[in-house]
Specification:
With about 325 residues, the protein is α+β, with helices and mostly antiparallel strands. The protein has 9 helices and 15 strands. Strand 8 and strand 9 form a beta hairpin.
């Protein structure tokens, strides 16, 4: 599977067809943040302190248990939806109430527990990998240059190769492999999020899928092969002699939604596409459609792609192109939902 909704169906289908696959129970653990945390804790994988917040439980007590600042999040949603930092007890209570409202809007069962985690400082990176027979082959490590410090955790820039020191990068890759093993994942794509604070590396999440949305377009492999082609060749048992990423630096910007309302226009597209290093621009929400930012929202306005001689050049290209865009969002009509 290459998205959160498809991973369980992919595991069950591959099991019936006799194709390389992950145990469905392992995939289920990646879909439940509490089950994931327990599995990682059992294997002593570095991660945030955590506790479940049951409906009606004392938010203040749970927040103090994991330590402040903390992060309140749902067990099931993805893409940073419903993930909120709280610096104190009052903020933790407000965050829990807001997350429960987001879950209700997503038609999740009432009374579902929430996850409360200690906030980990540091830079965030993403690892794209492929498991073959339980061995992790790292395909790319992305830096996330924009700080992800809360109160919401909207991802914007992904740039590869990472600019982390060699030793820290090796620890990121090794810890991703440990986390995959702790979850009993054995085959196929993985996408991991980790925090790096100096030389300390911790796992935030690991999914049994590839990078989401259109972000995979930022990656190309030998002979111009796409990430999806790599995943399909592995799933079908076809040859994968060379899955090295192209030598050119690359990156993607997930264009954030600045405020709620109705999208009326995105101007400056021609100038953005003409910016040095830009390889593509896709606006994925149609004009006239409602837009909602995180933490309630579940999508981005679109995607910018860049390639260049270095990660710094790619990051600069994405920022320059984004600055060209003029996004016009109007308040929704009175009484509209």
């Amino acid at each position: 599977g290459v998205d959160e909704e498809g991973v369980m169906a992919a595991a069950l289908g591959a099991e019936r067809l006799g194709l390389p696959h992950n145990p469905p129970a392992a995939v289920a653990r990646t879909r439940d943040k509490a089950a994931m945390r327990r599995a990682l804790a059992q294997a002593d994988v570095p991660q945030p302190r955590f506790a479940l917040l049951d409906a009606g439980a004392d938010v203040a007590a749970v927040a103090r248990e994991v330590g402040l600042p903390c992060v309140v999040k749902p067990l099931s949603l993805s893409g940073s939806r419903g993930v909120i930092r709280a610096n104190g007890v009052a903020e933790a209570r407000a965050a829990a109430e807001r997350v429960r409202g987001i879950l209700a809007a997503a038609d999740e069962p009432a009374g579902t527990p929430l996850l409360v985690e200690s906030y980990l400082p540091g830079r965030e990176v993403a690892v794209e990998g492929l498991l073959r027979g339980g061995r992790l082959e790292v395909l790319a490590v992305f830096d996330k240059p924009d700080p992800l410090e809360g109160p919401y955790f909207e991802e914007t820039l992904y740039v590869t190769p990472s600019r982390l020191p060699t030793g820290v990068l090796a620890e990121v890759e090794a810890l991703t492999a440990r986390a995959a093993g702790a979850l009993d994942l054995r085959e196929g794509p993985v996408h991991a999020e980790l925090r790096v604070d100096g030389e300390r590396v911790s796992v935030l999440e690991l999914a049994a899928r590839s990078i989401g949305g259109l972000c995979s377009r930022a990656l190309r492999f030998a002979a111009g092969v796409s990430l999806e082609q790599v995943i399909l060749r592995h799933a079908l048992g076809l040859g994968l002699e060379d899955v090295a990423r192209e030598s050119t630096a690359s990156g993607v910007m997930m264009i954030p939604i600045p405020r709620a309302g109705v999208l009326r226009a995105v101007q400056g597209l021609k100038d953005a596409r003409a910016a040095d290093g830009i390889a593509g621009l896709e606006i994925t929400i149609a004009r006239g459609r409602p837009v909602v930012p995180l933490p309630e929202g579940d999508r981005y306005l679109g995607f910018l792609f860049a390639r260049g001689a270095s990660p710094d050049a790619v990051e600069s290209s994405l920022r320059v192109a984004h600055a060209c865009l003029r996004i016009r969002i109007e308040p929704p009509a009175a009484g509209a939902r």
